[in-house]
């Protein structure tokens, strides 16, 4: 190593001098648990960090520096900072910070930023950071939140400041609020309101205690009375049970006595019943004999009745049924023959009517053809043939009249001339009738 040193640095001193100088300066460096050694130089691409330990140091080619790991106490003061509602207050907090040695990355970052600087300078950087975050959190909260919930405020400042200080290799060990003051009397007003509330709660508590004491006293008296009544009820219940048990014993004695008397009477009744059963058995035997004699007499009478009455009656019944069946058969055959005759007659009449209707339809068809051929001449001929029948029909009611009474009208006509005039008048109206009939016939012929 000494030879290499001479080559690198171009020294012309003898080798013995170099060895003597090297042995004189080579040594171990140590530090306590509140410090860290940072070794840099030959053999280390990055500085070697040794918190609370020892390290071997080569002279001239390696360098050893120290950084403090002591906890630094900071008084974080924020005078007259306006809260979220615009009330100015002053807050003094106490923070404990230190350079983190348990995390190599944080220790390396701290060495980059604070190595070679005094501890007071490091503390001043951390203090400025904490004061900034403390002011920011105060501006986001109300006086009531800061004053009444200090834990919430301390937690908010601790969390926000820790993130920034960790980027510098510094960790916040703790943070608490030491004092909260104001110059406007706001906190004093809050204290007065709280004092009044506490006094009110004290008066309410005293009243509640007095009420509870009265209630407990009343409950004690009630329990005393209840115990007294319960004792009396237990005595009455015991007396009742005694009377009930006594009555049950008496009832049991009377029951046993009644059962004994009943058993005697029952045995006597059973004996009398057995005697009556024996007597009844004898009567049954006698009655059975009489019944057998009567049954034999009935059988004899039935055989006699069968021989003298039933068999002739059955024969007459069979004869009557046979004759009735024959008469029924005859009647049915006769009815069927009559029905067949009526059906044949009806068919013949229906055929005759159909033929007649057919002939009449044919005649009407021929008449219609003739009317269509001769037209007015045929119609006049038919009318001339019809007029006598019409006149006869008009005069028919007069021929059947037995007596006619004539009354003179405005013209003074009486007698047969009046009757004849009526007939002639009707006949005079006949051409109009004929004309109407002719029109109807024309319409029929056209159809």
What does this structure look like?
A hairpin with a 5-residue loop joins strand 6 and strand 7. The relative contact order is 0.04. Helix content is 71%, strand content 15%. The protein is an alpha+beta fold and 447 residues long. It has helices spanning 2-9, 15-25, 104-114, 119-140, 143-148, 150-166, 186-374, 376-400, 416-428, 430-446; strands at residues 27-30, 35-41, 44-51, 54-57, 62-68, 72-82, 88-99, 170-181. The protein has ten helices and eight strands. The strands form three sheets. The chain has a three-stranded antiparallel beta sheet with strand order 3-2-5, covered by helices on one side.
How is this structure best summarized?
The protein is of the alpha+beta class.
Return the structural class.
alpha+beta
Q: Indicate the low-confidence ranges by residue numbers.
A: 1-9, 11-25
Radius of gyration: 77 Å
Q: Which percent range describes the beta-strand content?
A: 5-15%
Biggest sheet architecture: 3 strands, antiparallel
Strand order of the largest sheet: 3-2-5
Could you say which overall geometry the principal axes of the C-alpha atoms support?
elongated
Helix amount, in percent? over 70%
How far apart the termini lie comes to 156 Å
């Amino acid at each position: 190593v000494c030879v290499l040193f001479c080559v690198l640095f171009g020294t012309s001193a003898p080798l013995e001098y170099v060895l003597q100088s090297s042995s004189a300066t080579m040594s171990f460096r140590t530090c306590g648990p509140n410090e860290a050694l940072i070794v840099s130089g030959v053999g280390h691409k990055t500085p070697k960090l040794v918190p609370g330990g020892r390290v071997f140091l080569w002279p001239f080619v390696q360098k050893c520096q120290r950084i403090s790991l002591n906890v630094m106490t900071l008084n974080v003061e924020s005078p007259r900072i306006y809260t979220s509602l615009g009330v100015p207050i002053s807050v003094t907090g106490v923070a404990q910070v230190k350079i983190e040695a348990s995390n190599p990355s944080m220790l390396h970052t701290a060495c980059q930023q604070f190595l070679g600087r005094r501890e007071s300078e490091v503390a001043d950087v951390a203090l400025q950071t904490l004061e900034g975050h403390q002011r920011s959190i105060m501006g986001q909260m109300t006086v009531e939140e800061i004053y009444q919930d200090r834990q919430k405020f301390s937690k908010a400042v601790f969390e926000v400041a820790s993130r920034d200080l960790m980027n510098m290799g510094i960790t916040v060990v703790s943070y608490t609020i030491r004092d909260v003051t104001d110059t406007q009397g706001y906190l004093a007003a809050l204290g007065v309101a709280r004092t009044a509330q506490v006094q009110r709660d004290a008066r309410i508590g005293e009243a509640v205690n007095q009420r509870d004491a009265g209630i407990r006293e009343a409950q004690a008296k009630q329990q005393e009375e209840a115990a007294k009544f319960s004792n009396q009820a237990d005595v009455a219940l015991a007396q009742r049970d005694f009377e009930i048990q006594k009555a049950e014993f008496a009832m049991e004695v009377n029951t046993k006595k009644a059962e004994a008397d009943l058993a005697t009477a029952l045995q006597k009744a059973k004996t009398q019943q057995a005697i009556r059963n024996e007597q009844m058995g004898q009567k049954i035997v006698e009655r059975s004999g009489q019944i057998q004699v009567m049954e034999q007499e009935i059988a004899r009478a039935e055989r006699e009745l069968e021989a003298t009455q039933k068999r002739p009656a059955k024969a007459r019944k069979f004869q009557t049924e046979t004759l009735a069946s024959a008469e029924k058969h005859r009647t049915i055959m006769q009815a069927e023959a009559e029905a067949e005759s009526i059906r044949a007659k009806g068919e013949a009449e229906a055929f005759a009517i159909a033929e007649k209707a057919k002939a009449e339809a044919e005649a009407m068809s021929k008449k219609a053809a003739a009317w269509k051929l001769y037209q007015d001449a045929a119609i006049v001929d038919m009318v001339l043939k019809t007029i006598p029948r019409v006149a006869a029909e008009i005069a028919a009611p007069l021929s059947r009249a037995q007596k006619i009474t004539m009354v003179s009208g405005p013209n003074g006509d009486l007698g047969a001339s009046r009757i004849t005039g009526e007939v002639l008048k009707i006949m005079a109206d006949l051409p109009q009738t004929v004309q109407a009939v002719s029109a109807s016939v024309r319409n029929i012929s056209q159809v």
